[in-house]
What does this fold into?
Amino acid sequence: MHELTVAVVGASGYSGLELTRLLARHPRVRLVGLTSDRWAGERAGARLPLDGPAAALPYRPLAESEALGADLVFLATPAETSHQLAPRLVAAGARVVDLSGAFRLADPALYPPWYGFEHAHPALLAEARYGLPELARAGLGGARLIANPGCYATAVAMALAPLLRAKVAAPGPIAVTGLSGVSGAGRKATEDYAFVEVDEDLRAYRLGRHQHVPEIEQTVARAAGGCGPISFTPVLVPLRRGILATAALPVRAGTTGADLRGALEAAYAGEPFVRILAADRVLVKDVVRTNRIHLGAALDDRAGVAVVVSAIDNLVKGAAGQAVQAMNAALGWPEVDGLDLLGG
It folds into this structure.
């Protein structure tokens, strides 16, 4: 028996497509609405291999988002769009899971430098709950507005927080490199993301100014009690999907490799989507099309640093799957519901 009606706004983007597939087979929800300006009037079954009522759903224009009539609405929209829509949907009585960055940062003053707009809803921003269950589960129960984490923020914060919380890592600057598949840039028809531009090449971008940096620092500080400044180098790689992140952070004297692995294992014991492996066994191909995150850490004795490695699918654990997991947690359902068949 379906317990909740749900809708996806921005259903023709990569994250929106993933959400549609996941929600169409979720055992506790009924998908009742989809919006996409580019596909308005088409049926979902013409764009996705869906069965049953979900296949017959028409895509409606974005302007009709507030008329979808769903109990819970997922916003797979740019931050500026979510910033406008989320308050109206919440005021109308819907729960919202926002996949953009519009409600991730607690401090409104951070939005102009990192997202390029003034935040007009500080009260709702203060109410929003961060949708990373493994690090912020306690705040999700009953949430009206969930800010879904960024893909890089998920991969990096989950790697760093256990080491800092267990105090095997020392306070100090942290150097992070994140390699992401091209789908992380969204569904853009621009020259920079054309096949001939990205194939057989690697490209660092947004150095020192990626919008996930303050989110990572905020998330780690909340979970671990503090976080040193992060220098983040995002790199575009010629893959469709997936993220491999590596972070180097100073360790306390006497720390061993076993201490590092022990901190990760203790932090995520019993977590259904987390696997702790040897650092050189953390591979993107093992997590693609799953909601899993694989983590590993190694000690670099000579440099006095821990190197922690993480891998996720940027469209699942980094976006749509994470959003479904957060919804499940907020509603008191098993977090694996709708996600347990994603075997990769």
In short: The chain has a mean pLDDT of 95. The CA atoms of residues 66 and 251 lie 50 Å apart.
